[in-house]
Specification:
Elements lengths: L6 H11 L7 H7 L9 H22 L4 H4 L3 H10 L4 H15 L33 H10 L3 H5 L6 E4 L4 E8 L5 E5 L3 H12 L1
Antiparallel strand pairs: 1-2, 2-3
Helix pairs in contact: 1-3, 3-6, 5-6, 7-9
């Protein structure tokens, strides 16, 4: 890395150069090149602050001026979060971000704690447990459409189109992962009919 660029600039430049928006990550995995690319804007949004925080720490604690200099301190950085009892999810996200930054696998670093569903405490306090039986219509609709959580959140009535010829609904102009817009048929007409009043109410 050039020494005339700040270490934070190096982080931003490195991750930005890895952007592969619109390319197929599955194909990259098959070719063994997935670690060299960032395939979604959300991934960049998540990883960039994690990597910048590492760079600042490496500069402050060890006087590192380049990412190459900082590389040998990655294990110690992750270990700090383990020692401070940060969640396994946080540890894993940091390790994944740094692996993307350095174009390697998290297996090349000290191994963070394993993530277990029973250890998750996010959004658990003072919130009622979601009941699938009491929200059967909503659950059926989600299964029928295959939409992601953020896609469901921004769903509007105009995204539902009924084809009189086929007698089927189609989701249209849905903004999906990576900022792409897609359309797809819905598997269950009944599920849509039950949820339509919710969207228009």
């Amino acid at each position: 890395m050039p020494k005339n660029k700040s270490i934070i600039y190096q982080v931003k430049e490195t991750l930005t150069q890895k952007l592969c928006i619109g390319e197929k990550k599955h194909l990259a995995k098959q070719q063994g090149t997935a670690s060299n690319g960032v395939y979604a804007w959300d991934t960049l949004k998540t990883y960039l602050p994690k990597c910048c925080a590492f760079a600042k720490w490496a500069k402050t604690q060890h006087g590192c001026k380049t990412l190459d200099d900082a590389r040998k301190h990655v294990d110690a950085y992750i270990q700090n979060f383990m020692d401070k009892k940060y969640s396994a999810w946080t540890q894993k996200t940091i390790a994944s971000a740094l692996a993307k930054l350095y174009g390697c696998s998290t297996k090349n670093f000290i191994q963070a704690q394993s993530r277990r569903r029973t250890d998750s405490v996010r959004s658990r306090k003072n919130k009622a447990k979601f009941s699938e039986s009491r929200n059967k219509e909503f659950v059926d609709f989600c299964k029928a459409t295959g939409l992601r959580r953020h896609e469901i959140k921004y769903l509007k009535p105009e995204n539902l189109s009924f084809d009189e010829t086929t007698g089927r609904y189609t989701l249209v102009n849905i903004k999906s992962k990576g900022g792409r817009v897609r359309s797809c048929p819905i598997l269950s007409k009944q599920a849509v009919e039950r949820i339509k009043n919710t969207l228009t109410g």
